[in-house]
Amino acid sequence: MLRSVSVKNAIKDALEIFQFDQWVRFYFTVDKDGGMRIEIPEDKLRKIEEENPVLFRFADMVNDAPLDYKRSQDNVCSFVASRLDGEKYEPTVLPQVFDDVRFKVEMYLFNVWQKMHEPHLDEEYLDFSEWMEMYEGWNSLDEVKEYRTKLLQSGTDPQVPACDTAQ
User: Looking only at Cα atoms, what is the longest distance across the chain?
Assistant: First the structure.
């Protein structure tokens, strides 16, 4: 089996999984018995399976399970590792993905988009493909492209604010 060494493609594949996780948590997190859980209705689960069998495996894995930050992070990381690391990509590729400024910038921009559009996303249920279509529309705006370029050129982690102190 030939495995890819493309960090760029691995970034795209990993981003999709992280974005899907955020979509799942956005629509299917419920407060039950004093704790948070993922509960995906059967009809939605079947539709995910029809539209995207690979991401269905993730949805099925987290469905009907307790949810907290650590568990969510562990679920995503283990799914990325099992589906991409050593399977689709050479084992040296994935560690590069999470350190890559492009991955960090894209995740940051996705989080910005989600926060900005949360009221609209909350109005009605959108399939993952509809979410991504909406995101791609926003992502293609000139202002977003310029902001991405600025972030990439700065070389700093967008999640960590820089502190410029006068000396």
Answer: 61
3-class DSSP state for residue 16?
Answer: helix
CA-CA-CA-CA torsion sign (88, 93, 97, 101): negative
Q: List the one residue out of 130, 115, 138 whose CA is nearest residue 48.
A: 130
| Selection from 23, 56, 37 nearest residue 127 by Cα | 23
- Could you say which residues of the chain have pLDDT below 70? 1-4, 156-167
3-state helix, strand, coil in the chain (%, to 5): 70, 10, 25
Supply the pTM of this predicted model: 0.88
Supply the pLDDT for residue 29.
95
Distance (Å, whole) CA 43 – CA 20:
17
For the stretch 86-101, pLDDT in tens is 778 888 888 888 888 9
